[in-house]
Structure formats: C-alpha cells, structure tokens
Amino acid sequence: MNIARKGVDLSPYDQFTIEQWALLRADEPMTLTGDDIKRLRALNDPISIDEAEKVYLPLTRLLSFYVEAVQGLHQAAANFLGKKGANHTPFIIGVSGSVAVGKSTTARIIHALMQRWPSSPKVDLVTTDGFLFSNKELEARGLMERKGFPESYDRHRFIEFLSEVKSGRRNLSVPLYSHLIYDVLDDGEVIIDQPDILIVEGLNILQPGELPDDGSPITFASDYLDFSIYIDADEGDLRQWFVDRFFRLRDTAFADPDSFFHQFSKLSEAEAKDMATGVWKTINLPNLVQNILPTRGRADLILTKRQDHTIGNVALRKL
After folding, report:
1. pLDDT given at position 105
2. Secondary structure, 3-state, the chain
3. pLDDT-derived band of residue 5, with 50, 70 and 90 as boundaries?
4. Which are the contacts of 41, defined by CB distance < 8 A and separation ≥ 6?
5. Residue 263 or 115, more confident
6. Full set of structural domains in the chain with CATH
7. How many CB atoms lie within 10 A of CB 152?
C-alpha cells in the first residue's frame, strides 16, 4: 500500500538554508577570532570567520542542548539505579565524510568553540587515522592500495577504545598517525583521560561494518556516538578539491625529504594532475561510493558544501 500522500514530508530531516540556520545562533557569542580560524582550517579549506559564525555557532549551541539533555538522562538513570556519585558518561560526537571534504576543519572548529563554553568542559579530539594498521601490516595483508577503506583499520581496537571512553576508563592511549611519513608512529600516542566531550573524526565512523556469520552480538563504532555529523559535497567538487590539495602539498609538505611523498615533489604539472586524478578514481572514489556515502543517511546532521567549499544547506534529523 502506498502511504505517501501529496504534501506530506516523509524526510527524516528538517532542511535549512544557510541563512535560516544562521538565525539559530540566537545570542551565542563568537569566541574565536579570524586568526583562530586561519590556524584551524585545513590546507585547502577557505573557511572564513563569517561562515564559522553562521554555521558553527548555531551548531555548537544545538550541541550544548544535546549534551545537557544526555547528561540529564544519564543522571536520571544513575538515580534510578542508586548509583550516587557515579562518573558522568562522556558525550561523543562523530564527524564523517569524504577525503578532501573538510572534516578536519569542522572537527577542529567545533573542538575550539566547545572548549570555550562558559562551563569550560574538557573536550578532546581524536582522528581514526591512528587506528589504521601500520604500513607493514597493510602490506602483509595486501591492503596498501586500499588504505582508508574499512578493512585497513583496526576496527576492534577502535571500538574497544570508544567503549572504554564511555565506561569512564582513565588514561587511554590512542596511536598517532603521521601524514609526513604516511604511517602510524611506533612511539607516538595521545592520552585521553575522561573528557566531558570527545570528538572523533574519520572516514568510516558511521559504517555498520561486517556482520558475523554465526549470529553473535556485535557492536559498531556508531553505537557509541551521541551525535554524528556528515559533510557532503558533489563528487566532481570533491575530486577537484583533492587534486587542488595534491598540488598544494606538492609545493609544500612533499618538498620535505622525510616525507613519504617526497618522490612526487618533482612531478610536472601534467604528471601531478594525472597522478592525483588516478588516485581519486582508483582509491578515493570507490571508497566514497561503496563505504562512505551510504552512511550519510545515518548522520544526525548533514552539512552540504557548494563548489566554492562554503556550506549552503544544513539538514538536521528530526527527533
């Protein structure tokens, strides 16, 4: 039976233009400066202080309501169970989207704004890059050409980390990833110690993962997220941003002799474009289509970017 009726909105999201969304800032003060935004934005993400005010101030205002509500729910459950003085459960925010879409910028700006809330919460930020298998392990598994795909991550370790964060475990070690050497650092780590809020940024954090054949219970990374954000853009724009970023890196980071990509610093313009386009078509695009894009509909908030990298539309999941 067809239950759709003319004029009935069956979308799970409320849609906002950037102008409508900006009004939801209300009287939230801007605590970042233009210099802060320049420091926080990624290499090829030209976000301005004006856009930060229109997009991220309303978003962090919304998040403040969510955090308060979830903490109240946890306290109510603790009261019911008679657990007086129980540690509050950290609020976890996930930021997902394609390569080159601007996940890092979004995560860093949210992190900076939330740290400056009047309540001064402890806010930590981690990326899933640290949970990639080492290059040595990827080579042993025949996965070097699929780096960034779900199977290239130690998903068990990542989910175990999220579970421990939620349970209030202290001094959790997260591996560090170096984009310079294109590998997980053997002696690098960041310590996460009972944050009030944890922001997790990565390609595949909303993906369900593989189901077991024996029907045994399984948990996914998204089970631990209290709020999730997906950054969306047209594939053609993503491809161009990736190529543009490759050129910027060729002229900067690739010039470092210690860089894994130093061998590409001397490529001609035509060779660099061919290589970047080839990487996009053979690695990043299949990963986007097969693994990342299908998770968009699982997000609580979708930020859709225009060709100039600015956000033009916001979709918020209905409660």
Report:
1. 95
2. CCCCCCCCCCCCEEEEEHHHHHHCCCCCCCCCCHHHHHHHCCCCCCCCHHHHHHHHHHHHHHHHHHHHHHHHHHHHHHHHHCCCCCCCCCEEEEEEECCCCCHHHHHHHHHHHHHCCCCCCCEEEEEHHHHECCHHHHHHCCCHHHECEHHHECHHHHHHHHHHHHCCCCCEEEEEEECCCCEEEEEEEEEECCCCEEEEECCCCCCCCCCCCCCCCCCCHHHHCCEEEEEECCHHHHHHHHHHHHHHHHHCHHHCCCCCCHHHCCCCHHHHHHHHHHHHHHHHHHHHHHHHHHHHHHCCEEEEECCCCCEEEEEEECC
3. low
4. 47, 105, 108, 109
5. 115
6. 13-317 (3.40.50.300)
7. 21
Handedness of CA 302, 307, 309, 311 (dihedral sign): negative
pLDDT in tens, 58-105: 999 999 999 999 989 988 888 899 987 666 789 999 999 999 999 999
Give the global pTM.
0.93
Q: Tokens for 151?
A: 């199977």
**In contact, 193 and 68? CB cutoff 8 Å:** no
Segment 284-313 mean pLDDT:
96
Neighbour tally for 237: CB within 10 Å: 17
Give the model confidence (pLDDT) of 218-253 as tens digits.
888 999 999 999 999 999 999 999 999 988 888 887
